[in-house]
Amino acid sequence: MEHQKVLVLDFGGQYNQLIARRVRDLNVYCDLMPFGMTAEEIRKYDPIGIIFTGGPNSVYGENAPHISAEILRLGIPVLGICYGCQLIAYTLGGKVEHAETSEYGKRSFTFGKQSAISAGIPQTSICWMSHTDRVTQPPAGFETYASTESCPVAVFGNETEKIYGVQFHPEVVHSEYGNKLLENFLYRVCGAKGDWTTANFVAEQVAALKAKLGGKKVLCAMSGGVDSAVAAALVHRAAGDGLTCVFVDHGLLRKYEADEVMEVFRNQLGMNLIKADAGERFLGKLAGVSEPEQKRKIIGAEFIKVFESEAKKIGAVDFLVQGTIYPDVIESGKGNSAVIKSHHNVGGLPSVVDFKEIVEPLRDLFKDEVRRVGTELGLPDSVVLRQPFPGPGLAIRIMGEVTEEKLETLRDADYILRDEIAKAGLNREIWQYFAVITNSKTVGVQGDFRTYENVIALRAVTSVDAMTADWARIPYEILEKISVRIINEVKGANRIVYDVTSKPPATIEWE
Amino acid sequence: MQNNKRPETMKRIANETLAQDFIDEQVEEIRAQVGNKKVLLALSGGVDSSVVAALLIKAIGKQLVCVHVNHGLLRKGEPEQVVEVFRNQMNANLVYVDAAERFLGKLAGVSEPEKKRKIIGAEFIRVFEEEARKQEGIEFLAQGTIYPDILESDGVKAHHNVGGLPEDLKFELVEPLKLLFKDEVRVVGKALGLPDGMVYRQPFPGPGLGVRCLGAITRERLEAVRESDAILREEFSKNGLEGKVWQYFTAVPDFRSVGVKNGARTYAFPVIIRAVNTVDAMTATVEDVPFALLQHITKRITEEVEGVNRVLYDLTPKPCGTIEWE
Fold it and tell me: Inter-chain contact A500–B312, Cβ cutoff 8 Å?
């Protein structure tokens, strides 16, 4: 697969993955790599452009990450963002100073001089700033293109060297023309062709996988989640009946989920799909267990055992498919310059399967790209837009002991929540939403009777990367509708609370 | 006033002048009824008992013996306010009983709500009885009975706020508010110079925070209820919701969930916020607290209250959920 590549060098800023996603969204492939790459390594990687990300350090700080000036002399265009912008100035002999007050939030900035990266951007527009240090004098041979009231050098560059620095964050949506600036850098400065598209990816991957997997035996564990579903569908296009999928139904899935997996993958796509009905087995193992960590361990271990016994029936295979995606790859490569370990997202599976090689067809993709590939492959929205769902499933949304009765109550309550969120058209803007059944019972009145039933908590959060999350501001009338429906329709629930805590200090899940 | 029926001609006490007339009339009646004898009053710090106390202090001064039993389940600042207002400002004869340890001891390990209520109720009577026996020459017992109490009991039987005192402690009742509605009690209280915080105090259950520290009461969770409740009340007051929302409080359940603080895992209790409106306390609707305020309160509670990492907002209308959790 040959396509143009951009290198995003990571200096530790919180929006770094976002920068990479923006570049990908502009149809240019990029990799996010630790900042320590040498000029030689970069030359070998052969990018059409380099982007330096922001970061928490000050260029004069003791342990501040620096770069060799050689990188800026490779003849490859460079765009430095925030810290990356200060780093360019520092490395080439410009001046960076500590400002007395931080500049944080939306600011108006004005171009005093046009350049390739300002094409199509109004002279004055809004950008998003988050910095204390700032460039006060660009290096020799560089020009200042734009400034804000408190930041004299907001954009600077050298047209011949094709090196640019921007103090603000073009990757953040609050920067009105941020995306335009990135597009200018990619297309006007780096000469991007826009060869990174979902259709191209699918065509190239299927061709490559066909060459590799043709006539071989391939095994895939399906959880019902987006990643494994898309990986299986992609491999299926290439390997056809050579692919066998094992779907372990641990009985802890959401309402109708297991049925839907069977419907989509076996009936519609005609896949070779084996379903292991292990609900009772899992419930039996979980009886009397209320400690969250213990529940997780039991489910994880049991999952592998069930998968193992299914895999034994199939026998030796050539390849094991894993739904590893790019953020997993970045995570496991952190602080380990340029060395990227293979990330096993289904912990422990490789040890119980007799296979020769692991295939990770999605390891270059971000989550939103995985979803687009799923859509391109014809998977329904219900699969492609599925929310993140923990491996131990509903078991960790039942506080205390897991019982069939509580599972039933939770499944029904969770289904109503999802149904109403979808009806209200909020399912795309809310990152994750689910119900939790607490192990607290309270008094209520239903009709003329006193009830003593479970408290159900509703959790809905918005997030960019799940590292931090904000509770979703769902309008009260919708919350009321959901509560009333749950109380009236679900057996075993008489009180509903809404979790109004962000992460941190709480987490998204409860256990 | 032997008659328990409010005369149809009686005007609704809606202003200071009418309140003053009522106070003057009651002062006369109380003096006529009591003479130079001593009157005992269980002063909880709630609206009714506080207004009765202020009225009797005006009428008979130190002939009134107020007993304030602090069962350790009061809200933050409440026992201190009772001492400040009645002992320091009104110079009342106030017996302050710190029975917190005694109540918490009796409640240790008890998780069943009805049992908790019974223990608190029975223990309260016992403490009050002990104090009553220490007093010499008491012949009257004052009570904060109000007209809705009379109506609820068919207007026939006397309604005993302090029920369950043993047979040998039979006092003659003094019930100066028994023909008044709640709003009138507040107007009279204001005219008597009681602070707003006392006169407009929200309804508060007898077992106090004991029924908001869900399940078996522990000191840690009881403190979490008290501190979070104080934050909620302070923020509602600052943001104009005091007096607008009928009742609001916090509860702390007996389960924990995972959180993260300074990069480390926490396993702590949630705080539940309940804020409801009602016309008659029979049905209640959930207040739409502005999200920005809710976020601010959550932030304060998770930062300031020990052992708490999550805040939940109760969405349940009554019916199906009751206003209180236990």
Answer: yes
